[in-house]
Design a protein that fits this description.
The structure holds two protein chains of two kinds. The termini of chain A are far apart. Chain A has helices at residues 2-7, 10-39, 44-58, 62-76, 85-114, 118-126, 131-146, 148-161, 173-183, 187-216. The relative contact order of chain A is 0.15. Chain A contains ten helices and no strands. Chain A has a single domain (2-216), classed as MetI-like fold, CATH 1.10.3720. Chain B has a single domain (56-302), classed as Orthogonal Bundle (MetI-like fold), CATH 1.10.3720.10. The longest helix of chain B has 37 residues, at 58-94. The relative contact order of chain B is 0.12. The model of chain B is unreliable at 280-309 (pLDDT under 50). The chains are: A mainly alpha, B mainly alpha. Chain A: One of its GO terms (molecular function) is transmembrane transporter activity.
Chain lengths: 220, 309
């Protein structure tokens, strides 16, 4: 068992998983917020863009996005993000994970917007705030606070989904596990070791987000 | 779409003028993005007629896409049935009056929800193919079904539990007061109502299952994605092949989502359960349920009743 730590880069693989998850979470939050704003905008065309984005991305398998990004966009159409192959895979994995989870971030924020009482938006308008002002000063802060629980679920899903990067050859945790169980005996123990790694990554986050969503919930 | 009307007033003349400008900007944006994408595709020769012609022939469909679609649906159908059984058993187990059954079922459900589906799939595949559990040709399917069953079964177990918890207390009290045992109350009064209320969420889970069968790509299961890759190699049209596969997936899942929505609307119009209807919302993320979190939240954030003031 200790043998495996010596010959395979167990911690390195999980470090890559963490890096992938961190940058993708950041990207997904930014894109997701923009799409959420489009989806609640007063202009029908913007709403159409937002809705199409969510419906298209949400109904496509992440694996398909991942594979077509690296094979289609990078390899065939020559959209390299880096000249180093490993770096290219890493960057594309971040882009795809961000784009995919942005749809779920958007839906989480929208459910957060739905928790805001009508009176808040009406009050913001009645004191003369513009759409942008009422959004940034009154509605979005409350929407984020109301959306913490679904945002937490999305983050946890993102960490687990970062394993999909292994199908395009990123050397993150799931890919390493596949290599180890194929080459070594004692696969069951290895599986539980890696599973434990993911439990350690996600369980505290779940607990933290739950307490955060309780603490930050807007008292009404 | 009730949100927009909450956020802004009916536009006046100035706002309408501004909206018209913004509409033009938005339309230009769409056209611009489509043009850039199209230009890039054309530049690399992906829009050549030769690359799209195979989709007009029968062979591309009968030899690749339809078998792929069939494999995707087969894996999804078997997984969803097994996951339903798994979920029912462990969901009821978590509601058991016996403490150690509750604890064991709880640990199993939380564990399989926290572990990535792909990790289980890789492991099951190696386990099966090394020990020769199934015929070599069935190993990939078996691994896909195993992983999807364990994960989605755990999510369904949580749905069962939260569905029963969401029922009004009067239902179980009424059962107990007419002399049923807790077990009988659960089985004959609470569970049937919870299952009906869960129906839309279960169908939403089917979308997750269909999407997750694509993970079988990683273990050589010949589902739609893998078949379209093979198709792409055969006709040297990888990019168009993926585009067609994406469209097929989107149509399939979008129809499923709409169907779930229709079932939910029907249930809400003609309630045959005392509990609130669970929607598809919390489960559409792959691995969307959070481990260790308050499972009752699976239902609550869905229909936030905006307090009227």
């Amino acid at each position: 068992m200790g043998d495996i730590f010596a010959r395979y880069d167990f911690f390195g693989a999980f470090w890559l998983t963490i890096q992938l998850s961190f940058w993708s979470a950041l990207g997904a939050l930014v894109i997701g917020t923009l799409v959420a704003i489009l989806r609640v905008s007063p202009v029908p065309v913007f709403r159409l863009i937002g809705t199409s984005y969510v419906n298209l991305v949400r109904n496509t398998p992440l694996t398909l996005l991942m594979v077509s990004a690296i094979l289609g966009l990078s390899l065939i159409m020559g959209l390299r993000l880096s000249n180093d192959v490993n770096m290219d895979v890493f960057l594309w994995a971040i882009v795809v994970l961000s784009v995919y989870h942005a749809a779920f971030v958007c839906e989480a924020l929208r459910s957060g917007v739905n928790t805001i009482p009508t009176g808040q938006a009406e009050a913001a308008r009645s004191i003369g705030l513009t759409f942008r002002q009422s959004l940034t000063e009154v509605l979005l802060p409350q929407a984020f606070r109301g959306a913490i629980a679904p945002l937490g679920s999305t983050l946890i899903a993102l960490i687990k989904n970062s394993t999909v990067a292994s199908v395009i050859g990123a050397s993150e945790a799931a890919g390493l596990m596949a290599t180890i169980v194929e080459n070594e005996t004692g696969g069951v123990a290895v599986f539980f070791l890696f599973a434990l790694g993911f439990v350690i990554l996600t369980l505290p986050l779940g607990v933290w987000f739950t307490s955060l969503s309780r603490r930050l919930a807007v008292k009404r | 779409m009730s949100a927009p009307s909450v956020l802004f007033d009916a536009p006046g003349p100035k706002a309408r003028a501004r909206h018209n400008v913004l509409t033009a900007v938005g339309a230009l944006l769409i056209v611009g993005v489509l043009y850039l994408a199209g230009a890039r595709l054309a530049e690399t020769g992906q829009l050549d007629a030769a690359k799209w012609a195979p989709f007009l022939t029968g062979t591309a469909w009968t030899a690749y896409l339809l078998p792929g679609l069939g494999a995707t649906l087969t894996a999804a159908a078997i997984s969803v049935v097994l996951a339903g059984i798994f979920g029912l058993i462990f969901g009821v187990g978590r509601l058991s009056t016996v403490r150690w059954i509750r604890i064991i079922c709880g640990v199993v459900v939380e564990f399989f929800r926290a572990v990535p589906v792909l990790l289980m799939m890789y492991f099951a595949f190696t386990l099966y193919s090394r020990n020769g559990v199934f015929l070599p040709t069935i190993n990939p399917l078996a691994a896909v079904v195993t992983a999807l069953t364990l994960y989605n079964g755990s999510v369904i177990a949580e749905l069962v539990r939260s569905g029963v918890h969401a029922l009004p207390k009067g239902q179980s009290e009424a059962g107990l007061s007419i002399g049923l045992t807790p077990q009988q109350t659960l089985m004959t009064i609470q569970l049937p109502q919870a299952l009906v209320a869960m129906l839309p969420a279960l169908m939403g889970q089917l979308v997750v299952v269909i999407k997750d069968t694509a993970l079988g790509y990683g273990i050589t299961y010949m589902e739609l994605l893998n078949q379209s890759k093979t198709l792409g190699s055969a006709y040297a049209n990888t990019v168009p092949a993926y585009m067609v596969a994406a469209v097929l997936f989107i149509i399939l899942n979008y129809a499923m989502t709409k169907l779930a929505g229709a079932v939910e609307a029907r249930l809400r119009k003609r309630p045959i359960t005392a509990g609130p209807t669970t929607t598809t919302m919390p489960n559409i993320v792959q691995g969307g349920a959070e481990p260790g979190g308050p499972t009752d939240d699976l239902i609550e954030p869905v229909h936030p009743q905006p307090p009227r003031d």
